[in-house]
Write a structure and sequence with these properties.
The protein has 465 residues and is α/β, with parallel strands linked by helices. 36% of the residues lie in helices and 20% in strands. It contains 14 helices and 14 strands. The protein has a 10-stranded mixed sheet, with helices on both faces. Strands 4-5 form a two-stranded antiparallel ribbon. The chain is globular, with a radius of gyration of 23 Å. The termini are far apart.
């Protein structure tokens, strides 16, 4: 009788497991991308869709997973976040930096990026917070009071629920990556995961994170930025001295006198340059492909609360325009399972509303670095050295405050027998520059960025020859 009960229990357990597996597979299958419009054939799987992170508010975050080209089950999961705040990981990370596809000039289709990071890892692009890209909320007030804290909370909820949908990733090594204001998002999410893991029976296997041209500390970022402008002959000696003597770089909101100095520097002394790569031409093309005067959109940067003109950067400086055409196509949205609720505004690469109304921001991320170094995470910080928005001087000034001891002194690292940049390995953190790269390092120097990423995943210092 006992044996019969045992057999019945095992049978019921088997049925429950089969039902659970079937449910999981159905959820996953609903998110499968068969093919994007104009997409070349590829050997890897893709999935995209929504994960609801707050049922009451109706907040849902959009993701796009491009699995590894070879043997994805053996490869880590790498989460990519773009910054802004308010900018899309689909527009930037996926479409012009580390993703497998690039959008062609007519926005009619895609072509392959041979330096895609999914050659060595599974890439999960997350649009966070709600209001960015295809991510949405049904509570309009969410767009007026979002900030660092909620972004970290919602991103953690997303990751936990996403792994329930894709259980094969639950024990996988996880790395967080991103750039710019993701210098806040990535360490804050890493800390949230570490805190969650301390209390959870099902911890996320977080191994480390890597951030590029990262907003880090208000005071040292601002000091380093003004210093970069002067050292790269973008501003006069007089303006430099006035900025240094007038501005309180630790403040979120500067004095009117300081604001006017910033405006003077940008309007009168910079000239018509792309501040995200000071040696790259700006985009002078209309969205319909016709030639136009250089246009400048005012976007406030989080570490410097004054208007800065966002000019498009890259080998092709108009890539953002192609994205805004491609991702507003109905056939593209259908293939991505995106905009299923018919969001009442066009998809944009960056949300100016979110950027303008950002509610809370950490003045410094350095205390989080100290926590996460103590937690034993692998931490890399890299910097394209021709970016004037979050420049290499800003990052070096900020990281110097950690007062880390040096393991491997400063040296040039190489890619294809050329100097890819310079690096120093500290106790608990690796810093690297990428020579000739702008704000979006993988856009300007894709081969060097892939080498950087491979070394990071292996935990090896960058090659000396």
């Amino acid at each position: 009788m006992a044996m019969a009960r045992g057999k019945i229990f095992v049978s019921m357990l088997f049925v429950l497991l089969v039902v659970h597996a079937d449910t999981t597979n159905k959820e996953e299958e609903a998110d499968r991308i068969l093919a994007l419009p104009g997409q070349p054939k590829v050997p890897f799987q893709q999935f995209s869709g929504y994960v609801t992170v707050n049922e009451v508010a109706g907040r849902a975050l959009f993701y796009w997973l491009t699995e590894a080209v070879h043997d994805p089950l053996s490869k880590p999961l790498v989460v990519w976040l773009n910054g802004g705040p308010g900018c899309s990981s689909v527009a930037y990370g996926a479409s012009e930096e580390i993703g497998p596809f690039r959008i062609n000039k007519t926005a009619s289709g895609l072509y392959l990026n041979k330096f895609s990071w999914n050659t060595v890892a599974n890439l999960l692009f997350l649009e966070t917070p709600a209001g960015v890209g295809f991510s949405y909320t049904n509570r309009s007030s969410d767009l007026l009071d979002t900030g660092d804290r909620r972004t970290a909370e919602d991103s953690l909820k997303f990751l936990i629920q996403w792994m329930n949908r894709f259980p094969r990733y639950k024990s996988r090594e996880v790395y967080l990556t991103g750039e710019s204001y993701a210098g806040h998002y990535v360490p804050q999410l890493a800390r949230a995961i570490v805190t969650y893991n301390a209390k959870s029976k099902h911890p996320i296997n977080l191994k480390g994170f890597m951030v590029g041209n990262a907003v880090t500390d208000n005071y040292y970022d601002n000091l380093g930025t003004v210093t970069y402008w002067w050292s790269h002959a973008m501003i006069s000696d007089r303006t430099y001295r006035q900025l240094i003597n007038t501005c309180d770089f630790s403040q979120q909101k500067e004095s009117d006198q300081c604001e006017s100095l910033y405006s003077y520097a940008m309007d009168q002394e910079f000239g018509n340059i792309d501040q995200y790569n000071i040696y790259s031409p700006p985009c002078n093309v209309n969205s319909d492909g016709t030639t136009a005067p250089a246009t400048r959109r005012a976007i406030r940067l989080p570490h410097r609360r004054h208007p800065i003109f966002r000019q498009i950067s890259g080998y092709d400086p108009c890539t953002e325009k192609y994205a805004e055409i491609y991702y507003n196509r109905q056939d593209v949205q259908k293939a991505l399972h995106a905009n299923i609720t018919k969001i009442p505004y066009k998809w944009t690469a960056c949300s100016e509303e979110l950027n303008r109304d950002w509610n809370d921001t950490d003045a410094s991320i350095l205390p989080i670095y100290r926590e996460l170094i103590s937690a034993g995470l692998r931490i890399w910080v890299f910097s394209g050295d021709v970016d004037s928005v979050v420049p290499v001087t800003a990052t070096r000034y900020s990281l110097a405050q950690l007062k880390l001891s040096t393991k491997i002194p400063w040296y040039p690292w190489y890619v294809k027998k050329q100097v890819g940049g310079w690096t120093e390995v500290y106790e608990g953190l690796t810093f690297a520059t990428v020579r000739g790269a702008g704000h979006e390092v993988p856009l300007f120097k894709p081969r060097a960025a892939l080498q950087l990423f491979k070394s990071f995943l292996r935990g090896d210092p960058l090659p000396k020859s």
